[in-house]
Amino acid sequence: MTQRTFLQNRTHVPGTKSSTGQPRRIPHQRRPTVDPALVHRPVAHDVLPTAWRQVADSRFQVDVRWPEEPRLFRPDDGLHSPLIIAETMRQSAILLTHTAFGVPLDHRFVLQDLRYTVGRDFLPVNGPTNDVAVEVACSAIRGGRRPTAMHCRVTLRRGTARAEGEGELGITSPAAYRRIRGERATAELPHQPRPVAPGTVRCATAEQVLLAPPAAENRWQLRVDPHHPDLTNDHFPGILLMEACRQAACAATASEAFHPLVFSVRFLRYAEFSTPCWVEARPQQGSSDVLVTCHQDGEPVFLAHMAMEEDPAGR
Hints:
By secondary structure, this protein is α+β, with helices and mostly antiparallel strands. It has three helices and 14 strands. It has helices spanning 83-99, 174-181, 238-253; strands at 29-30, 49-56, 59-65, 108-117, 131-143, 147-158, 161-172, 219-221, 235-236, 262-267, 271-272, 277-283, 290-296, 299-307. The chain is globular, with a radius of gyration of 19 Å.
């Protein structure tokens, strides 16, 4: 869902759209790192993009470098977490909305859906390089002077390996966000239930665990440590919910290492702090597929599909 914008450095990002509504060409940006505010991360270590450039109308390349020791997505069994693909997509898209499309830094982003497919050959921790070339094609751009929504199709290359993804972003002004959220815009995280044993969900520490002990078979309450680095909103953010999916699938399948090489998720509403969110995983017989849902107050929050095998149908 939305990510809080960090404005320690109130960098002005000027509007860059032409009279046709397409982004004007921007010189190639080269920096040692991208300002964390431009990818909605509070810590420079967690910033993945290092540079970007426009290659055609609404088509861009983002240069990304994965950290050797990721803080947010723990490697497992010699592989990067496939969720680093989702985070790479998220940061690349947000970077481009602020720079190429001139969206102000105080706007909010709503992740409406996201899909990716990646092979194991893309993910080795000790691979030939941690540099990833990300091609982003933006389409279905809606809004007037500034975009309010867009679709992003993404191709990632790491050496000779390739991954694919796409997603839909909504973009909300501060005033509109306050109207939508009302009193919930100032919500604080209440006391959280204890976590399951970290080993159950392939986590190193209890602080990384997002599930409480099961209330029923393959059904857990969502929980989060107050100091979790992804907890930067007035609700549970989308990238954290995706990690909760991985943990639920891991626990439900008793897999030594559940690597979601295929992931698709559709977010239907905000996951609020106020009442329990229930995460349920349903392994599918005869395949590595797992369906994961989340409900709050009887209403669906998200629907997700994961698999540990590459999907030749491209679901």
